[in-house]
Predict the structure of prephenate dehydratase.
Amino acid sequence: MADKNRIAFQGEPGAYSHQACVEARPDHEALPCRTFEDAIEAVRGGAAQLAMLPVENSTYGRVADIHSLLPKSGLHIIDEAFVRVHINLLAVPGTRLEEIEEAQSHTVLLGQCRNFLQKHGIHRITGADTAGSARAVSEAGNPARAALAGELAAEIYGLDVLARHIEDEGNNTTRFLVMSPETDFSRRGDHGMLTTFVFQTRNIPAALYKAMGGFATNGVNMTKLESYMVGGSFEASQFYADIEGHPDDPAVARAFDELAFFTEELTILGTYPRDPRRP
C-alpha cells in the first residue's frame, strides 16, 4: 500500500466514510482522521492526495459544519459518491442472535434500527461512532453485546454478522464529496456535470430572488440551495448551491453573470461528473 495515493476520511477504520473511500477510490489507501478538519489538513499538508467528506444524508439532512468548512478548506470538489447505509448487527464470533442483550452504536444508527431492536428485546447503548463501537465490541469479547455498523467494520474487527440490513428505512443514503487541492474543470463522465458554489447576496431588497432569476430564465436546474449564517451575524447569510451543468455552458455562464451582479462573494467549489447512483 506504500506506493498508493491516500484518501483521507473522518472516523475510524470500518466507518461508512471508509466504505465510501473503498468504493469510489479503490486504488487509494484510506487514511482515517479524527475530525473533518484533520481530514482536510491531511490533504493540505500532503499526507493525502484526496479527502472524502460526507455532506448530506437522505434521512437526516445535511452534515453539521461541513458547508461552513468547505469554502475555507482551499480544496476543490472533483467527484461525488453515494453510499447506501446498510446497518448490520455484529457480534464476537460464535455468538447467536438470541444471546444478544444490548447493541452499541452511534445514536443515529440506534434510532434507525428501533423496530429490529424492540422485536428482539435488545437494549440500546450509545457509542461515539459506528466503527468505534464495532472495535469496542471486538475488544471486550462479550457475547451479550453487539454493535450496529457496516460489513466493512465486521471484516476489519473480526466480528460475525448476525443480521444484515436491519435498518427501518429502506433507502437511507449518504452523499459524499471527493475533495482535491487541484481543480478539474474537464468534462467527464457519461451522466452530465454538476457545479457547486457558495455565494453571499448584496444587502438589497429581494436580493436572493433576483440572484436566482438568472438560473430560471436560462433553464438551469438547481438541485440544492441551502443557507447558513457566517461571521456570527444574523444579517449575513451564505448560500450553498448545486446546479446541473458546467460553467462553460452558455446558459450556465449567463446565469452566473446575473448572479454576480447581486452578490458580494461568489466562489465555485468544483465542477464534477454526476454520479450514476444519484437518486
Remarks:
- Residues 82 and 175 are 5 Å apart (CA to CA).
- The longest helix spans residues 250-261.
- Residues 193-273 form a domain with the Alpha-Beta Plaits fold (CATH 3.30.70.260).
- The chain has three domains: 6-85+172-180, 88-163, 193-273.
